[in-house]
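User: My notes are a mess, but here's the protein and nicotinamide-adenine-dinucleotide's SMILES. Can you give me a structure?
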Amino acid sequence: MEGKVFAVTGAGSGIGRATAVRLAKLGALGIALSDVDEAALKDTKAQCIQYPTRVTLKKVDVANIEAVDSWINEVLKDHGRLDGAANVAGIAGGEGQVTEDIVQRDWERMISVNLTGVMNCMRAQLQKISKPGGSIVNVSSTSGLRGLAKNAAYASSKFGVIGLTESAAAEYGKQGIRINALLPGPIDTKIFRDGEAKGLFSSEIISAGTLMGRMGQAEEVAKVLVFLLSDDASFVTGARWTVDGGYSACGFYRAG
Ligand SMILES: NC(=O)c1ccc[n+]([C@@H]2O[C@H](COP(=O)([O-])OP(=O)(O)OC[C@H]3O[C@@H](n4cnc5c(N)ncnc54)[C@H](O)[C@@H]3O)[C@@H](O)[C@H]2O)c1
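Assistant: No problem, the inputs look usable. Here's the predicted complex:
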């Protein structure tokens, strides 16, 4: 990580925050943090600057293409380079549950944030990232491999992230840029607990569906994400990398 600069979306909480802190701990030269929640970003920054790294932060809604472009332009101005990007920001939930009840604005917001948001970030990042040597990790989900009842919009957005990742990986591999999808299973963060509170899934049932019989922690995902960003993963591109305690290896939970 030394001498390198990384951009992280969704850095105010959960996996994004854990990724930022791990990058700082491993000696990244600079980290550019973004999220819609500015107060949360400040907390993440406070954790990162315990280590010798330069941290900038910006309130950015990844669904807003102008805001993303302007953020990535600022990253280049502030840090002078961009070597890696973790596109982590995401949402789940919505009002309706089964597909016929999905509210159109919830569908559109889900696709805008989870899929178009990753596209907005990748487009801006690919124009600026170090070539060769750049690495991008897009956070999908095990729900990007198989459907998840009562979560059709979420699963659709996460399937899309995999298609986007694999297509871009094919385009940029020969230029020495690696692009991978990270697929977390059940991880104990706000997005999961909020979904559970709405009855979209149950931590107890999903945990029992993993081979390890438990939820994962954000830090366990961040360790793999940062590995994929690093040169240690120099021959890994276009991968669908699960971090799910074996959840996808043994059949998936089916709500309702
Ligand atoms: N927790 C899980 O079980 C799980 C499983 C599979 C995939 N994921 C994915 O992991 C990613 C991170 O989620 P998490 O578990 O850390 O949840 P989290 O709720 O702790 O963090 C999500 C972060 O994204 C930010 N965010 C939301 N909308 C945004 C937007 N429009 N623009 C910028 N930032 C925005 C939130 O403010 C929050 O800080 C998400 O893409 C999620 O879909 C999580």
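The longest strand covers residues 178-184.
User: Great, I'll file this with my notes.
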